[in-house]
Amino acid sequence: RKEVEQDPGPFNVPEGATVAFNCTYSNSASQSFFWYRQDCRKEPKLLMSVYSSGNEDGRFTAQLNRASQYISLLIRDSKLSDSATYLCVVPGFSGGYNKLIFGAGTRLAVHP
Amino acid sequence: EAGVAQSPRYKIIEKRQSVAFWCNPISGHATLYWYQQILGQGPKLLIQFQNNGVVDDSQLPKDRFSAERLKGVDSTLKIQPAKLEDSAVYLCAGRRGNEQFFGPGTRLTVL
Fold first, then answer.
1. A39-93 pLDDT, tens per residue?
2. Per CB distance under 8 Å, which residues of B are interface residues toward A?
3. pLDDT recorded at residue A95
């Protein structure tokens, strides 16, 4: 099993739609999780952190299910500007230091 | 606060040539990461520095890749000799708390 697996996408949705992405992880010891957003030809930027069962920020909701080892990202009322790749990120450890393990990303295209 | 600086932004070389990338992280970020992002994939960690010491280089192809951060501030990543499969975006990042801040990346094309 890969350390982090995501829906491959792409997801093509109309403006105003609700869309959800799933991500599964293999390390049951992971405590915190992240969603990063990456626009085309740009660097990844932190979208949301998830430390407990979930987190909500405006139209974005991230949920964590530790028993099933998956994280989801829900986007409500999609905007054209939401078009991007969404990277699921799980922490790991190496040499006593934190590192981040990135999924391959799920591409979202919101159309008029 | 200035962001993470990287140069060059683009580089095209032929296979077997050498190339070097430079990164200057945000001031005060002791941890520095180099990632390789191949088209259609997520960033893959190549090497992690804590100040000027390497803490993880398990995924760095050491026969051709090298990196240094001599003074614990800026860093260089070198590929010598380059292969076609090294074509990717090379991202540098620093860390504050649990958040990583990425530079704009260097897009390398190996012909």
1. 999 999 999 998 887 889 999 999 999 889 999 999 999 999 999 999 999 988 7
2. 31, 33, 35, 40-45, 48, 50, 55-56, 58, 91, 95, 98-100, 102-105
3. 61
For B65-74, the pLDDT digits (tens) are: 999 998 888 9
Q: Which residues of A touch B48 (CB under 8 A)?
A: 94-95, 97, 99
| Interchain contact, A104 vs B42, CB within 8 Å | yes
Detail the DSSP E strand segments found in chain B.
5-7, 10-13, 19-24, 31-37, 44-50, 53-56, 65-68, 75-79, 88-96, 99-102, 106-110
For A97, which of B55, B100, B103 is closest by C-beta distance?
Answer: B55
